[in-house]
Amino acid sequence: MRQMVIAGLLLAPAAALAASAFDGTWKTRLDTVKVTGKADTFAVVDGMYTCSSCVPPIKVKADGTDQKVTGHAYYDTVAIVVVGPNSIERITKKGGKQAGSTTLTVSSDGNTLNGQFKDYTGAQVATGSFSESRRAPGPVGSNGVSGSWQPNQISNANDTATTIVYQMTDAQFSSHWNGQSYNAKFDGKKYPVHGDPGHTLVSLKKLDANTVQETDYRAGKVTDEIHIAAAADGKTLSVTDKDVEHDQITSYTADKQQ
To answer: Whole-model pTM?
Structure first.
């Protein structure tokens, strides 16, 4: 769900920068969010939680205690709480500090997965709700949330999750979201996202006056390829985030706030 907590852009003094179509505060329009690609696949069965779509895959005890995992940028433990036969809570931590929590509940007909998330990786807690449609059933005897799911809809996300700030000059692009920021030149070099516990690096390319391509890296690998295009009237942004690690593409429109 991190793709929905999109890094925004750091403001600079207006007098020092020429105005661009990107400059200002933007808010994601939730009814435009669309996710395609690989399904989310996990299961809780025989006291174990497995997530085959996680990168790397996860297999831990589903006993409510913190279980160590490796290879994940934003957490090093996972706790799976079985709330009921059709509901679980997934809690992640990094260095003992809570990174996120997601409560999952399957609908009575078993075809819709409803989730509520809290993301603690920024300065403020980002929250929201989402739903996913079933693509395949889980193993026999597994918790009702088990199976393969197609991300479907984001709803009720707070301003922390959906509000970003952008600014661009001829030479560079700046970003700020919830205490995480970068200021990257259009020179092909990698720049750090300050305040990001995942230690993301970004490289920026200016395609034209209204279009920017961002490439994200973690642990030396490309994780995301993000295409950001500003409308000619400066009122909307079209964003497409290709999550290379999870083989999913998220697209959405953001509206200018100021």
So the answer is: 0.89
Same fold flag, 2-36+160-256 and 38-156: yes
Reduce the secondary structure of the chain to three states and give it as a string.
CHHHCCCCECCCCHHHCCCCCCCEEEEEEEEEEEEEECCEEEEEECCEEEECCCCCCEEEECCCCCEECCCCCCCCEEEEEEEECCEEEEEEEECCEEEEEEEEEECCCCCEEEEEEEECCCCCCEEEEEEEEEEEECCCCCCCCCEEEEEEEEECCCHHHHEEEEEECCCEEEEEECCEEEEEECCCCCEECECCCCCCEEEEEEEECCEEEEEEEECCEEEEEEEEEECCCCCEEEEEEEECCCCEEEEEEEEECC
| 161-212 pLDDT per residue, tens | 999 999 999 999 999 999 999 999 999 999 999 999 999 999 999 999 999 9
Architecture of the structural domain at 2-36+160-256: Beta Barrel (2.40)
User: What's the chain's average pLDDT?
Assistant: 93
Omega of the bond leading into 56 within 30 degrees of 0 (cis): yes
The pLDDT of residue 7 is above 60 = no
Fold of 38-156: Lipocalin (2.40.128)
16: confidence class by pLDDT, cuts 50, 70, 90:
very low
Backbone angles phi, psi at 227, to 5 degrees: -105, 120
Q: Where are the domains of the chain?
A: 2-36+160-256, 38-156
